[in-house]
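Q: I have two molecules that I believe assemble together. Could you output C-alpha cells for the complex as a whole instead of separate predictions?
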Amino acid sequence: MDHLFAFALDGKADLWSINPLELTNYEATGTAFAVIGVVIALLLDLARHRRLTGADSTDDVIYLPHRLEDSFDEASSAMESDR
Amino acid sequence: MLRIIEKYGMLWIRLWFGGFNLISGLNYWLPIFPFPKIADPLGATYFDVSVQMGLFQMAKAIEVIAGLSLISGVGVPLALILLFPVTLNVFVLDGFISFLPHIKASGIRNFLFHLILLAYYSAYYLPLLKIWSKPAPLWRNSHLLKKFF
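A: Yes, here they are, computed for all two components at once.
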C-alpha cells in the first residue's frame, strides 16, 4: 500500500505507483501543454481585461436551432417553392 | 469563482488530453521517447496483431490529428468522436488487462477526461440522442452546411 503512492524524483516513471507526480513521458508532455496553455490563456484574459469566466450558456457560444425539425421543414418548403 | 475553475479547468483537461494523444501518436512515427514496453502477454499479443492488421497505425494517426485539434481548439467535437474508439481501446487494455497500477490509472483517467470533454461539448451531440427522428437527407439540406461551418 505504501508503494502505491510512492514518488521519487529519479527521471523514471514508477509504474507500480499511482501518485500523480509520477509521470510517464506522455503524461509529462500533456502536463507541459496544459500548464503552458492555461498560463497563456490567463495572461491573455488579463491583458485584454476580459472577464475571467466561462460562457454563460451554450447558446451564447454556438448556433443551435431550437427545434431541428423547424430548420428541416423550412428547408423542405424552400426547396418545394423553388420548384 | 466556479466559472473560473470551470473555464481554466476544462482548458487544462482539453490541452492535457490533446498533448497526451499528440505525443502518443507522434512518438510512433517520429521516435522522441523510448517506445513503452507492454508488460502483460495479452496486451503484447493484441499490440502485435493490431500492428500487423494496420489498426495500430490508424489509431496513431487518429491520435495525432485529434491531439492537434484538441490543442488548437479547432474541430474539437469531431475530434472527440474520432478519438473515442482509441480511448475506449486504451481504457479496456490499460484499465482491465494491464496489471500495473499506474497503467490502470492512466487508462481510466484518459477515459474519464474524454467523457468530461464530451459532456463539456454536449450541445453538439445532444441532437444525436433524439429517439424519434425524421430523416433529413444531406442532399435536401445541403444549405444547412453553411450554418455549421
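A: One point stands out. The interface with chain A takes residues 3-4, 6-8, 10-13, 15-20, 22-24, 27, 32-34, 36, 39, 71, 100-106, 122-124, 127, 130, 134, 136, 140-141, 143-144, 147-148 of chain B (CB under 8 Å).
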